[in-house]
Amino acid sequence: MPLKNSDTTHIIEEKDEYEAKRYAEYLYEAKDDIVKKYNLHEIEERLTEALNYNLVHGELMGLKMLLPAYKELVKQKDLKEHQLKSVHILGWCVELMIRTFMINDDIMDKSSMRYGRSCWYTMENVGMSAVNDCIIFENLCYHLLAKHFRNTEYYVDMMEMFHEVMLITSCGQCMDMVAGQRPIASFTKTAYRNLTHVKTAHCALYMPFASAMYLAGIKNPLAFRQIKSICLEMGYFSQAQNDVFDCFVNEKETGNIGTDIEENKLSWLAVECMLRATDDQKRIMEECYGKKDPEKVQQVIKLYNDLQLLEVYRDFEVERLKNIETQLQQATHEVPRKAVLEVLNRIRKRDIVKYV
């Protein structure tokens, strides 16, 4: 569920090869630094392969959110070379963190596909060594932050933010795992909302926007509280949308294979179903949810349809969008409102109606 299903690929649409891939030298620079410093030449090829597969040829969602947000905050359409360098180095730091979580999530969920490609850990000669790759990615992020931003006035605050996101999202991963071991009768709206906040919103949304704000010299604590609140709401909405897509939209459209029902995931659909189900319908859920039997999976989907949960979701979507837009309107100018609204509009355009 969360990190896998909360992939923000659908948020970003680029017609051309994204500019950041021309700045991959900064990513390789971090690899070269540690290879030289610690005499790691024997694994240099493996490190390059891991970076190429997971980052350079990845979706770059964090980079694509950070750049327009920074341009908006500094009020510049065209950035100078030193600004572009800083944006892209920081963007790679964000990407390294995001990929760390995604690889771990794929392993824990036993996923096979992400973005229409085989998950990294399923590749030949990778396997569980992908767990160690995650540790390397995380620490390459800290290496880049220290090397390029140590002398800035915002370095300590930004580094603390990255560590906070790592801690919160890791705990969210644990929450997702623990929730999947519990009976469906224990699922609640409060637990679900909290899960989307700690496992989805901080990493996928708050980290890129907050990074842009630090880089732009924003110091106002209110602005950071506001962007966090907005991102938590967007994460809640986006995750619920992804849960619906996981169930009702096929792999060809999403690039992922939906397994929330089989894996007993704490999902928006499961929570809403249990809130509306009769006693008999709840018994069906208890007998069928979390089972890998295709017939039982279909019984759950039929129950979702019987309870008209797609209609419930559409009402939920309208309510959440209104709430997020109100928060954006009330936010200080030190929040990148246009960039956030662009991301929100991308999510909004992902209409379930055309798929079902």
TrEMBL record:
> Pathway of this protein?
Pheromone biosynthesis
Stored Pfam families: polyprenyl_synt
**Keywords for the protein's UniProt record, in alphabetical order:** Magnesium, Metal-binding, Transferase
The entry lists its GO molecular-function terms as:
(2E,6E)-farnesyl diphosphate synthase activity; dimethylallyltranstransferase activity; metal ion binding
The portions of this protein that span the membrane are none
Alphabetical GO biological process terms: farnesyl diphosphate biosynthetic process; pheromone biosynthetic process
Keyword Metal-binding attached:
yes
List, separated by semicolons, the cofactors it needs: Mg(2+)
Any one annotated GO CC term: cytoplasm
**Alphabetized InterPro entries for the sequence:** FPS1-like, Isoprenoid_synthase_dom_sf, Polyprenyl_synt
Its domain of life?
Eukaryota
Q: Into which family does the record put it?
A: Belongs to the FPP/GGPP synthase family.
**Name assigned to this protein:** Farnesyl pyrophosphate synthase
Originating species = Stomoxys calcitrans
Gene that this polypeptide is encoded by: 106087716
